[in-house]
Q: What sequence folds into this?
């Protein structure tokens, strides 16, 4: 074989190998960018059977804010209505696309119950994992995740955590969400359509946003696997979360920020599903908590629980 022919063969083989390496690297850097999602292939009957199992999974929150578990929905609604009378001494900006100011969850809850009342569509493996953590919690152990170790909460855990206000701020090309809890900061990139190539996996991932009418649509990918979606449900590296934020006026004249959260994770759920939450505008917090409407939060000052490999603290 001539030397020139050998060189051509070597170049062809090397080129093919380099193409394969680049393809693998692209998958590792941006697993959610291709839009190809492979969910477990379950028949309709299998999905129904798994959902019946999932719907039996019930968790009593370890922290019962306002003793809500002891009250009827009517009692809770009446309490919220009374509280909201003092929430908006100053109205929000008139522009429905301007969320500037402080907002707080209305009757927040830390779960993944869908809008139709069904539990999340766990795979069999995730259902088993979630139940194990719930049972550990019921046995008196402290179940931990990234947030309890003072790391960022992850998405959507950060948004659905009740009890802590969120402040929206606008910068050129970005919308910033400043969370009081652990001072988590989310940056929504409004000048990009997707995460840049080589974006690392982080606790909060990489968020890009755009407007559909007056609805802010935020897509978050590139999250690491050290967080949980609520506090007992895990996720995989291919998690994609899409949030849709829309301002609404209530019949009483209050301002809500309705949020529909769509969770897409083929490693832990057998289909895509959505949950919904509402935030209320809280300009009153500027008077009680200071100009920013959020107060100082120091996780490190009270971080006493060291978990084992399963994320459970057994030594009190």
A:
């Amino acid at each position: 074989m001539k030397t020139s022919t050998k060189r051509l063969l070597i170049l062809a083989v090397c080129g093919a190998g380099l193409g394969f390496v680049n393809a693998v690297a692209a998958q590792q850097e941006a697993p959610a960018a291709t839009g190809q999602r492979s969910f477990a292939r379950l028949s309709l009957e299998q999905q129904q059977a798994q959902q019946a199992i999932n719907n039996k999974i019930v968790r009593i929150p370890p922290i019962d804010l306002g003793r809500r578990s002891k009250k009827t929905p009517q009692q809770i609604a009446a309490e919220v209505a009374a509280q909201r009378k003092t929430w908006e001494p100053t109205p929000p900006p008139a522009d429905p696309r301007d969320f500037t100011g402080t907002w707080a969850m209305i009757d927040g809850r830390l779960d993944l119950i869908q809008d139709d009342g069904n539990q999340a569509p766990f795979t069999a493996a995730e259902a088993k994992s979630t139940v194990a953590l719930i049972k550990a919690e019921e046995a008196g152990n402290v179940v931990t995740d990234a947030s309890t170790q003072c790391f960022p909460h992850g998405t959507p855990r950060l948004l659905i955590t009740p009890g802590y206000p969120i402040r929206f701020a606008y910068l050129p090309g970005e919308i910033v969400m400043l969370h009081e809890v652990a001072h988590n900061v989310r940056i929504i990139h409004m000048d990009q359509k997707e995460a840049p190539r080589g974006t690392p996996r982080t606790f909060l991932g990489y968020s890009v946003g755009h407007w559909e009418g007056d609805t802010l649509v935020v897509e978050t990918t590139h999250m690491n696997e050290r967080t949980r979606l609520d506090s007992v449900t895990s996720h995989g590296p291919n998690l994609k979360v899409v949030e849709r934020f829309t301002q609404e006026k209530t019949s009483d004249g209050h301002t809500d920020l309705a949020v529909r959260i769509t969770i897409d994770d083929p490693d832990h759920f057998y289909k895509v599903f959505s949950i919904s939450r509402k935030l209320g505008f809280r300009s009153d917090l500027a008077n009680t908590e200071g100009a920013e409407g959020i107060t100082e939060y120091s996780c490190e000052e009270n971080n006493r629980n060291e978990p084992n490999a399963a994320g459970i603290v057994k030594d009190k």
Notes: DSSP finds six helices and eleven strands in the chain. Residues 3-29 form the longest helix (27 residues). The chain has one domain: 44-91+98-289.
